User: Fold this.
Amino acid sequence: MTEHQNQLDQATRDRLAKLASTPVDMSRLTRMMADALPPKQESKPLARPARSGGWQRVAAMFVLMAGIAGASYLAIFGVAPQSTYANAMTVEELHAYLLEHPDSAYRAQTIERAQVVINAQLAGNMPLPIVDGTNVQSCCLVQGDFPLRAALVVARPEGRVTLIIAQGKDFAHPAQPIRHPSGIELQSHSHIDIPMVMRNIGDLWICVMGEPDHEVLADIAASLTF
Amino acid sequence: MSNSSTDSHLDTARRERFDAEIWPEAAMLMRTAISLMPSSGKTAEAEDLVPETLLKAFKAIDQLEPNTHPRAWLLTMLRRTWIDRWRQRERRPDGQAIALESVAEPADQTHAAGQHDEDWTNPESLLSRFGDQDIINALRLLPEAYRWALLLVDVQALSVDEAAKTLDVAEGTIKSRLHRGRAMLRDHLHGYATEHGWLKGNDGLANAEGNTHD
Assistant:
């Protein structure tokens, strides 16, 4: 194939991929399936992660690190871990929760499939993870609660990665702006030993965090669109 | 435990799993079924195909391996349901169903796909002008085998391996159908773009800033 044919093929593939988020009317199907399937029992939303246990240990590490680094640490990261949130989770809490509860969120095996899930969640055609609270907070953004728009886990050979997309765009303290080889601007830092890479498109931002190193996370952040 | 309470317990467990793993894919199935239909007037048929597929999935959900993404599994079921229905409608006068291969294989192997490719000098801009419905209409003009390949791999992000298993053909066949199907799709879109004056002479794009059609 010539370079031009490759370019045509790729452009055609990209355009076809957008059909995965075409809105469809599900009302008739929903009614038909409700009639056809055995009734479901009332299900309670999964409880939000307990603040004792795993997250508390992480929070304790945060406090210890803050103590070592001095008061300026909190000034840098903005939000103390002891804050109480009425109906919001920090991205780190959500990350820990999704990894600890395999049934709570979609798990993609490839970035291509993750993109399909993101498109579907942003279009409202696929449910968000069942968590107590639909807002998220991030140490990387100006203080506030931001509506969660998409969240899933990607199983990479290098380790598990959580993708969290929320409404919001103002980075509070870009710890380390980086430029991906593709030319895309990203923000990168680690919070309590969890590497994170953030990216902003329009009024949405994504936080890519998990077990792989920053380089892998940056590749993922740069390859997704939302 | 009585048989009925055992059945009830099983149904409850299946329903929970169905809600968690299968139902999130229902919109994907609906989109695929709608795009499969050879004309837009068949949307009601697509709407019948999907619940039939979902009910089969509910009954067979125990066969779905835990921690396996159900998309390829569901699309295989959709494919089988589609063929069953097609066979029911297309029985020969002697009552025999038409062979599966004739359903699956492209009728037209000689079509020179990609004959206008040289006109596509700026494919991203030109393709962005088509609305989703334009693309779906063009997909519907393709032979069924190509339509399936494009829908599974390019739209629903199945791997070539998964698509090959779903359609029960070799991976090489899928790759070939993808390449050829994309070229045929562009040919159909080329005609549409020409009609709308989006292609001017041989420069590939008359006006990249125009409105898209939805």
